[in-house]
Design goal:
single chain, 292 residues, alpha/beta, eight-stranded mixed barrel, 12 helices, 18% strand, disordered N terminus, binds ligand C2E, binds magnesium ion, GGDEF domain-containing protein
């Protein structure tokens, strides 16, 4: 409602915009205390191989449970953390926590798998990133090949020369690199051959209607073919149905991740999911023993 006091005749902010801004300010402020107060935790989404149905990886996803606001989406608070620089300590905490978790799972007898961690542009731009990551790998005893850093196209394209050098540093140490939300960013494909990228993540916007939309089918198929020709693998995000799964498998997509298999899980639930997956595969005849 416009206040009728004359001074407010020029209103550039609607009440919704104001609410949004004050919420953003309040969230950004509260975020400063989130780490010390233990309000952050990670959930882990299984990444499943389309070759044999094995859980071959986990993606660590950040959650903020605020005492007043409840669960705040990372889509809302990550941009705020990027704007006020908090993404640097938070991102380091995410890396450390995810690597410690993988170490604990391996020590508990789970088979080797990759841990995918999202890296924001601000983090990627930090001097000393490679050393920080290497230090955490040494500290937790996780082999570098088991860590997969997820970058977006925007990160890769921002300062291509710097990015190329950083990616080379990371991949020379054995760390895997994956391009998140592939196909949605504004980028040139030429970076794919210059950068040491291991995997493309087909964005969920192409997966959603893949059962019916022939454009999405063409795009997903092209991404898989291009990735394979360039020596990269592919994983599809946001796979929710058997129909989507079947299409992606038929086109040679390597892995999937999505609600069809599992939502992101708390550590103990992730572990139970992997154990159940192993058990189910033991009970099934192996593909070679199967009569076709
Ligand atoms: P993302 O890395 O592309 O992660 C995929 C998002 O899709 C996650 O949302 C996940 O929960 C969701 N998702 C997974 N399967 C399905 C599905 O079958 N259907 C649908 N509709 N959604 C699915 P989430 O956890 O809310 O994260 C949103 C974004 O926030 C992430 O997108 C990532 O860009 C960012 N983010 C999350 N954790 C971190 C972090 O630790 N660091 C950084 N820098 N960014 C993070
Ligand atoms: Mg993976
Ligand atoms: Mg991701
Ligand atoms: Mg994504």
């Amino acid at each position: 409602r416009v206040k009728e006091d004359g001074r407010n005749s020029y209103r550039f902010f609607t009440p919704e915009m104001q609410a949004h801004t004050s919420r953003a300010l309040a969230l950004g402020n509260a975020l400063k205390q989130a780490l010390p107060r233990g309000e952050l935790h990670l959930v882990y989404q299984p990444q499943v191989s389309l070759l044999d149905g094995r859980v071959v990886g986990a993606e660590a996803l950040l959650r903020w449970n605020h005492p007043q606001w409840g669960v705040v989406s990372p889509a809302e608070f990550i941009p705020l953390a990027e704007a006020n620089g908090l993404i640097v300590p938070i991102g380091e905490w995410v890396l450390h926590t995810a690597l410690r978790q993988l170490r604990a799972w391996l020590d508990g007898g789970l088979p080797m798998m990759t841990m995918a961690v999202n890296l924001s542009a601000v983090q990627f731009g930090q001097a000393g990133l490679t050393d920080m990551v290497s230090q955490l790998l040494r500290q937790t005893g996780v082999p570098p090949e088991a860590l997969e850093l997820e970058l977006t196209e925007a990160v890769a394209m921002k300062t291509p020369e710097v990015a190329a050098q950083k990616m080379q540093e990371l991949s020379q140490r054995g760390i895997r690199l994956s391009i998140d939300d592939f196909g949605t960013g504004y980028s040139s494909l030429s970076y794919l051959k210059r950068f040491n990228i291991n995997q493309l993540k087909i964005d969920q916007s192409f997966v959603r209607d893949i059962g019916t939309d022939t454009d999405d089918q063409a795009i997903a198929t092209a991404i898989v073919q291009m990735a394979h020709s360039l020596g990269m693998t592919t994983i599809a995000e946001g796979v929710e149905t058997a129909e989507q799964l079947d299409f992606l498998r038929a086109r040679g997509c390597d892995q999937v991740q999505g609600y069809h298999y599992s939502r992101p899980l708390l550590p103990e639930h992730f572990e139970a999911f992997v154990r159940a997956n192993l058990q189910a595969r033991k009970q099934k005849p192996t593909p070679s023993a199967q009569a076709n």
